[in-house]
């Protein structure tokens, strides 16, 4: 192998090693910043990460919003129509936050089985719902109803 080829080979190997290191560092940095979305049913089924921040979404249970005397701490329940998850949030709630409406809260599930939110997001209008939340609510409603809805046979045609 000529010295020129050796130099080129070492440069290619060095470039690939540098690229691999850069990709590894980016993936490591993103691992700590990715926030996964779960429903209350998934949290109760222990599918949510323990000791890590994640998002929980669903509907704010009607009649569950309670405010403490400090004016900032709010207790409320998030439901996916099957399970209910108690949430505690200390801060100013969005203007669109209301009972019976969709909400996404980011925080951690503590040892007391209460979700301690660091951030609360309310949907921006009455028609919008994230696809994940809609799918989760649909699945929960089907599970609550029991079995799959009965199939109605198609009308038969009469031949001439």
Please provide a written account of the structure:
The protein is α+β, with helices and mostly antiparallel strands. It has helices spanning 3-33, 40-44, 131-145; strands at residues 37-38, 54-60, 66-67, 73-79, 84-90, 102-109, 115-122. It folds into two domains: 1-34; 37-144, OB fold (Dihydrolipoamide Acetyltransferase, E2P) (Beta Barrel). The chain contains three helices and seven strands. A five-stranded mixed beta barrel has the order 2-4-5-7-6. Strand 1, helix 2 (40-44) and strand 2 form a beta-alpha-beta unit. It starts with a helix and ends in a 15-residue tail after the last helix. The model is unreliable at 147-152 (pLDDT under 50).
Order of neighbouring strands in the sheet with most strands: 2-4-5-7-6
CATH class of the largest domain: Mainly Beta
Helix content: 25-40%
**How many strands?**
7
Which topology of the largest domain does CATH recognise?
OB fold (Dihydrolipoamide Acetyltransferase, E2P)
Number of helices: 3
């Amino acid at each position: 192998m000529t010295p020129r080829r050796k130099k080129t080979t070492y440069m290619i190997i060095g470039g690939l090693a540098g690229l691999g290191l850069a990709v590894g560092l980016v993936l490591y940095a993103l691992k700590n910043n990715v926030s996964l979305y779960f429903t209350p049913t998934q949290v109760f089924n222990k599918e949510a990460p323990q000791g890590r921040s994640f998002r929980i979404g669903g509907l704010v249970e009607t009649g569950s919003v309670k405010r403490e005397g400090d004016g900032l701490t709010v207790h409320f329940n998030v439901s996916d129509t099957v399970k209910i998850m108690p949430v505690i949030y200390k801060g100013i709630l969005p203007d669109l936050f209301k009972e019976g409406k969709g909400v996404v809260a980011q925080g951690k599930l503590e040892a007391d089985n209460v979700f301690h939110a660091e951030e609360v997001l309310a949907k921006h209008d009455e028609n919008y719902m994230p696809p994940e939340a809609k799918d989760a609510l649909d699945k929960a409603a089907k599970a609550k109803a029991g079995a799959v809805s009965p199939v109605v046979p198609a009308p038969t045609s009469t031949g001439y």
